[in-house]
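task queued by scheduler; priority normal; single chain, no ligands, no partner chains; default sampling; output format set to C-alpha cells
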Amino acid sequence: MGFIPNTDADQQQMLNKIGVRSFAELIGNIPGELLFKGELKLPVPLSEMEVLKHLNDLAGQNANCEDHICFLGGGAYDHFIPAAVKHIISRSEFYTAYTPYQPEVSQGTLQAIYEFQTMICELTGMDVANASVYDGGSALAEAMLLACGFTGRKEILIAATINPSYLQVIKTYSHGRGIVIRTIDWQNGAMDLQDLEKHISDQTAAVIVQYPNYFGYLEEVDTIAQLTHKNGALFITSNDPISLALLEPPGVYGADIVTGEGQVLGNPISFGGPYLGLFAAKKDLIRYMPGRIVGQTEDKNGKTGYVLTLQTREQHIRREKATSNICTNQGLNALAATVYMSLMGKNGLPAVAHLCLQKSHYLAQRLSALKGLKLKFDRPWFKEFVVELESKYSVNNIINKMLEKKVFAGISLQETDKRLGNCILVTVTEKRTKEEMDYYIKSMQELLQ
C-alpha cells in the first residue's frame, strides 16, 4: 500500500477547498464520546528491514494449510490447485486488467468471461450464467432479490441447513425492502419437508436450499422443487461446483436459479477471499439477472467477436432500472476458475469429486468406530459430515488439542444450532491422504481415551 505524505499546507489547502477551517470542523458531526482523545502510544520507528522481519514474524504465527492437515470446510475448502492456474492468471494482460468498462476493446477478457459462463452452464445444466458476482453469499442474496422482482411476492423460505454466513447476508440484503425471511427447520440433517409444506403459500417468492447443504448432506431436491413450483414460487439452490461433476445438475431437478461459491475452482483459501459468486438461471429470467453477461457474435467481416450483451447495472443504465448496484464480476478469480476447469476437464473434475466422496466416507467410517464419537446424521453426504462427541467431552477443547497436533479437526457447530452443541463439521477433499486421515483418527482416539 502506497503512502502519500501531505504537508500541513497541503492539508489546509484541501480543507479550504472543502469549505471548512480545520479537520476538527470537518468531523464535527461525530459525537464527542466516539472521538479518540488520548495519546497514541506508537512503538519506536523501525527500518524497512526491521519492519519486514517483524511482519514476517507476525505472519508466521498464523496456522495454515501448508504446515497443518486441514479438515476444515463450511464454505472455504482446501482443494489442489495446479501450478498452471497461477502462472496463467499472473500474465500481465490478465493480472493488471480491472473490469471491461470499454468492453469491446478487451476481446481477450471478454472471451475468457464467455468461456467461464459456458462452463458454468455446462456444470449446472442451466440456460445462462453471468460473469460472476462477489461471492457465494451475495450470489444467493441476489437470487432472492431476483425472485421477489420476478414474482412480485415478498416472502422467502430458506432451509435452516444453509451456510449461516449466507443467511446473514440474505437478511442484510432483505432489510428495509419489506421482504419476509422464514427459516424452514431441519430433521436428520436436511430440510424438514413437513415444515416446508406447512409454510409455503401463494405469497412465497422462492424456496432456497443449499445442495449439498452446510452440514454436507444431500437435500430432497426433487420433492422440494415440485412443492415450490406447485405454489408458483422459484426454486433457488446454492451448490458446491465440485459436487456438480458427480451429482445430478440442478437444471435437471428443476432449479430456476443456481448459485454457488467458486473458490473451490482454482482459488486459494486466502484467509477468506477474494472469492467469486456463481450465478446461473433459466433463460426467461435473463433480464432480471444481476451483473454482466458476455455474448458471442460476428462482425461485418464474419469474424467472431465478444460483446457485453447484457449489463443491467446502475453504471450502464438508469439507476432505477438496475437489477443490482452492489455486484460486479470477480474477473481474476473467474479467470482462475476458467483455467482450473479447462485443465481438469470432463475427466478431471469427476475424479476430484469421486476422491472427495470416497475419502470422506473412509474417514467417517473409521471415526464412527471410536468410543465416545458417532456420526450425527444417517443420510447421504458428499465431502462433509457431522460427528457428535459424548457429552463429557468439550468440542472446543478437542479442536484445540488437535490443533496442537497440527490438525485442523473441523468446525464446531455450537454457534450454528443448540441441538448441535457437541458436534464437529468435518471436511475431506482430494488432498487428504490415507496417512493424514489415519493420523487424524489416531490423534482423535488418543484424546477420547
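post-processing summary
- Residues 83-341 form a domain with the Aspartate Aminotransferase; domain 2 fold (CATH 3.40.640.10).
- The chain has two domains: 69-80+346-448, 83-341.
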